[in-house]
Amino acid sequence: MSDAELDSDDVQQLQDGLQRVREEIRKRIVGQQAVVEQLLTCLLCDGNALLESTPGLGKTLLVRTVADATDLDFSRIQNTPDLMPSDVTGTEIIRGDGDNREFVFERGPVFANLVLADEINRATPKTQAALLEAMQEQQVTVGAKPTSFRSRSSCWRRRTPSTRRGPTSSPKPSPTAFC
What interhelical angle do 33-44 and 59-70 show, nearest 10? Predict the structure, then answer.
């Protein structure tokens, strides 16, 4: 049997696992079953999601709960106009002393399995571009050197509705960027 083939036991295990995840999420999130199902589908398909609604409706709690229920690494990026691309992707720093100094890549928050990029429309275009590269190509470029992710990462962006715009506009999501 090839890696792509599934038997009925595999399908049953997946269904049982999803049911356990749903039950864990329901312990913290009341209602919102349609959104939860869409996010789980997105996660299973290695996709990204755009969550857009008014403040205070529990989007951050929902994403954090999904990460906890699925035992995934979670990070949150609070986008602001002064956020630099290196704050998102990571940067090379000098470690050591004397003649034993070397550059070491310090990974940024996009290297988590599940990333919530909050208020994406407040970030500068360069920071948005760095985040989109991480989302679509599963890598970041620091200097001229691309660094790939060790494991699949899913990014769920949150954007303020158009009635309350930040200093920069978020690019219109392309159909290939989000599930």
Answer: 50
* The token pair that represents 160 in the structure block: 């303020």
Name, in order, each residue with C-beta under 8 angstroms of 54's C-beta and a sequence gap of 6 or more.
Answer: 161
Among 139, 144, 172, which residue's Cα sits nearest to residue 155? 139
Residues near 98 by Cβ (< 8 Å), separated by ≥ 6? none
Query: Is the separation of the CB atoms in 49 and 114 below 8 Å?
Result: no
Distances (CA, A) of 112 to 8, 28, 46, 115, 160: 32, 22, 14, 6, 23
Digit-coded pLDDT (tens) for 119-157 = 888 999 999 999 998 888 888 888 788 888 766 656 666
Closest CA to 33 of 11, 62, 67, 1: 62
The model's pTM: 0.76
Quick one: fold of 8-159?
Answer: Rossmann fold (3.40.50)
What does each C-alpha distance from 122 to 9, 31, 115 come to in angstroms?
46, 29, 17
Where do the structural domains in the chain lie, given as residue ranges?
8-159
As a whole number of angstroms, the distance between CA 84 and CA 106 comes to 15
Q: Round to whole Å and give the CA distance between 179 and 177.
A: 7
